[in-house]
């Protein structure tokens, strides 16, 4: 997925996301070729790149499968796609907000890398999705807490 294969289009990429990765992706708007997923069966945890690297190392240290991770080079952020198993708790969202982490939960939109993106400065895969696996949101938050030195409240 890092190398754009011949014939890769927003529609074919979207089909891959839907059929292979079980992501309810759509091309929206079609004329721009942007690919999005409405958060519901998948959520996203977004953080600064340096924290994303540290979380990845922490997950590897815990011998956890990492799952899909996107990079947003222009904004220096990483996004982990996760299972929606985090509690709907304002104190959790506030805790994460204080360390510059945001959680895209049900109803939010998650933009995925698309071959229509003009360059990799918008979105690209650090760890591309290869199947329907996504790590637990709780495990990613625990790794954030461990690497950022934050205690659960």
Summed up:
The protein has 4 helices and 8 strands. The chain has 153 residues and is α+β, with helices and mostly antiparallel strands.
Could you describe the largest sheet, including whether it forms a barrel? Answer: 5 strands, antiparallel
Task: Supply the number of helical segments.
Answer: 4
Name the shape in a single word.
globular
CA-atom Rg in angstroms: 15 Å
What is the CA–CA distance across the termini? 38 Å
Estimate the helix proportion, in percent.
25-40%
Task: Characterise this structure.
By secondary structure, the protein is an alpha+beta fold. It has one domain. 29% of the residues lie in helices and 22% in strands. The chain has 4 helices and 8 strands, in the order H-E-E-E-H-E-E-H-E-E-E-H. It has helices at residues 10-19, 49-61, 90-98, 137-148, and strands at residues 25-27, 35-38, 43-48, 69-72, 77-82, 102-104, 109-112, 124-127. A 5-stranded antiparallel β-sheet has the order 6-3-5-4-8. A 3-stranded antiparallel β-sheet has the order 1-2-7. The N and C termini lie far apart (38 Å).
Topology:
Layout lengths: L9 H10 L5 E3 L7 E4 L4 E6 H13 L7 E4 L4 E6 L7 H9 L3 E3 L4 E4 L11 E4 L9 H12 L5
Antiparallel strand pairs: 1-2, 2-7, 3-5, 3-6, 4-5, 4-8
Helix pairs in contact: 2-4
